[in-house]
């Protein structure tokens, strides 16, 4: 067995959901950790905990889902991400922050409307490609965020939560990324998508590009906080290039030199700029 189906099986075997009892939330200086990572923790915990709603959305968007996709998001990715959310939310509360307010049930109207079209096989395949590309970008961004947080906690000497919470989560994200990458490559390289379908995928991606977990202007600003507070904006173009590399290769190969999709770079820049404006305005940053 090879390809995405085998990859999902390997992920499930090598990385079962994290045992919640294995986490050590001992923190030497909760105030300092909260000050440095509270903004990112709050956002990342919410996104991880909303996996339940994400699974509902996928059921709407991909009604004719393949067995490998179904097994991955329902039996591998979903259970793992749910534990990630619990771990981050519990850590946040140990730092004196309130429980995360996550939306686990409300499937947006736009998703339901797109789901009606996805019953048409040609449209379904376009949506499937966009699902893979979105998943790959999300997981790549998560890998970068958790790496930055892990390094910061190590520098602070907060090794208990670094190793048993952040690093325990971090080690599971590359497997998710690999599944999306292999699935997208297999779909495109198989020739299953006609030129007009690829054109539609490019159009939809460029017109409706979204930052993970950001459904409102306020949440986009919050996402900007993750970018800024974790240092991903130190070289933002390079960060976005890494996050968007797969879709640059698959969607935009016909446009030589488009190493960073403009729509993605704008979205990240706008979010970071909005967060910096919030800083200047002196608004509360860490949830209290």
Question: Which helices and strands appear, and what pairs or packs with what?
Answer:
Blueprint: H1 4-14, H2 30-49, H3 51-61, H4 67-94, H5 109-117, H6 121-155, H7 159-170, H8 173-189, H9 195-207, H10 217-229, H11 236-251, H12 262-281
Helix pairs in contact: 1-4, 1-8, 2-4, 2-10, 3-4, 4-7, 6-7, 6-8, 6-9, 6-11, 10-12, 11-12
Could you name the key traits of this structure?
288 residues, Ferritin, 12 helices, globular
Summarize the structure in short.
With 288 residues, this protein is mostly helical. It has twelve helices and no strands.
> Helix and strand string, N-terminal first?
HHHHHHHHHHHH
- Strand pairing plus helix content: what structural class? mainly alpha
Beta-strand residue fraction: under 5%
Report the helical percentage. Answer: over 70%
CATH topology: Ferritin
Number of domains: 1
Gyration radius, rounded: 19 Å
Q: Which consecutive residue ranges, at least 5 long each, have pLDDT under 50?
A: none
The CATH class is identified as: Mainly Alpha
Give the end-to-end Cα distance, rounded to a whole number of Å. Answer: 50 Å
Mean pLDDT: 90
Q: Which descriptor suits the 3D outline?
A: globular
The name of the CATH superfamily reads Ferritin, core subunit, four-helix bundle
Number of helices: 12
Let me know the number of strands: 0
In the CATH hierarchy, the architecture is Up-down Bundle
Largest sheet: none
Q: Can you walk me through this structure?
A:
There is one protein chain. With 288 residues, this protein is an all-alpha fold. It has a single domain (4-210), classed as Ferritin, core subunit, four-helix bundle (Ferritin). 71% of the residues lie in helices and 0% in strands. The protein contains twelve helices and no strands. The protein has helices at 4-14, 30-49, 51-61, 67-94, 109-117, 121-155, 159-170, 173-189, 195-207, 217-229, 236-251, 262-281. Helix 1 packs antiparallel against helix 8 and helix 2 (30-49) runs antiparallel to helix 4 (67-94). The N and C termini lie far apart (50 Å).
